[in-house]
Amino acid sequence: MPAKYHIHTKPTPPRFKPIGKYGIIDWREDCSACHNCVKRECAYSVYDDERERLRGTVEYVDYIYECRGCLCCVQSCTKGLLSWDVNPEYLKMGDDVWTPDIISSTWYQAETGSIPVSGAGYPGPFRGPGFDSILTDMSEIVRPTRDGIHGREYISTSVDIGRKPMKLEFGADGGLLTECPPIVEIPLPILFDAPSRKKPGEKIPGFIMDAAAELGTFAITPDPELMTHSAALPFVDAVIYPTNNAHLAEWPDSSDVVARVARAKESNPDLIGIVKVPLGESAPQRAQELAEAGIDALHVFADWHGHVGPTKQHISLAIRDVHLALVRAGVRDEVTLIASGGLSLAEHVIKTLLCGADAVCIDVPLMLALECRLCMNCQNGLLCPAQIDEVGPEYAVQRIVNLMGAWHSQLLEMMGAMGIREARRLRGEVGRAMFFDDLERDCFGPVFGKRRTEVA
């Protein structure tokens, strides 16, 4: 048995003070200075160096927003002087999809490489839109021998990229007659999308490449200068063709894309050709045409919020449409399906695979790992508050590796709790998922009818 895949994480502190979520309001006027002050009970020892830090350069308003929500001090203060509140600056971050909690959670994972845990627990709703309307079946979590991150059993997160034959044929002498296309195995079902070289962070694409190489995966890049990198997955336009030593390459969809891929394979027969197809009403039919034409892999994508088209259909539903269309055509097992757009958490990777993808591609979480706040200043020609263009290689690579280390641990935990030992088996396994809209319609629809939004 090969050695288990392991991501080497290392604590990498942020360059700037993170924007904290919770704050403690301390009405000091009535404080009795108890010798057994409840501040000493803080589970995270936030108050241990209070005096020293208040005398230093850290502003008090920054200090109080380091609370992590254990609530020990609020609950135990005999005079009720301490109260808990949310930082208004925290609420200004991100938007409805890339929420402040997701941004903060990504920062924590990139710093520590650990699974985030909130002292205050989860105060949110039972379900929400998009990925939050998909519930995973974790019934195997009660099994005492389940693996998770504890190493008692082998759980593989590896997936294959490339075209696969539907069957194998052997000759009378036992020799293999079927010509097997090239396949690339990656230890994580995750690819990176390296941005083009532009402000902020002209060096960031190279750092993403280095992180991908360390993790054993690939990063898509349109930059000719980076296409010779060992982890590069060239995004090829009408002029530039991948080098002869490239393992994979991606083309934007066009009327002659099949011929363009074929021309590239003439000089590099081991090349795996990927076609990038926008999700939408025509995506299932187009995916079927490309699969039947012999394309190795398809990269279907939504916008960065996970929305598809004017109706803003969620990427999870759009992927299911493509996956089922390929199943009905009898070609699903031949082609690899990669999905991207709106994936912000490790659980979204699992849910995307359950909806029918073989692997995913991410970009925004990589920038969040480098302390991006999604303030959009860079899009408006303003200064970046996180100074992304000044990050160094060691910091950037390790933060991305830490984030993937935390995601990998969560993938193992979810797969162990679902009773699935191999990431390849996740593809289209909707039996391990529960879709809230379907449950609500089947259980309550006959009694209460449809929701008003559905009727409209």
Describe this structure in words.
- With 456 residues, this protein is an alpha/beta fold.
- The chain has two domains: 65 residues, no CATH class; 286 residues, Aldolase class I (TIM Barrel, Alpha-Beta Barrel).
- The chain has 14 helices and 16 strands.
- Strand 6, helix 6 and strand 7 form a beta-alpha-beta unit.
- Helix 10 crosses helix 12.
CATH class of the largest domain reads Alpha Beta
In percent terms, what proportion of residues is strand?
5-15%
| Count of discrete alpha- or pi-helical segments spanning 4 or more residues | 14
Number of domains: 2
CATH topology term of the largest domain: TIM Barrel
What topology, given as strand order, has the largest sheet?
8-7-6-15-14-11-10-9
Helix proportion: 25-40%
Oligomer: single chain
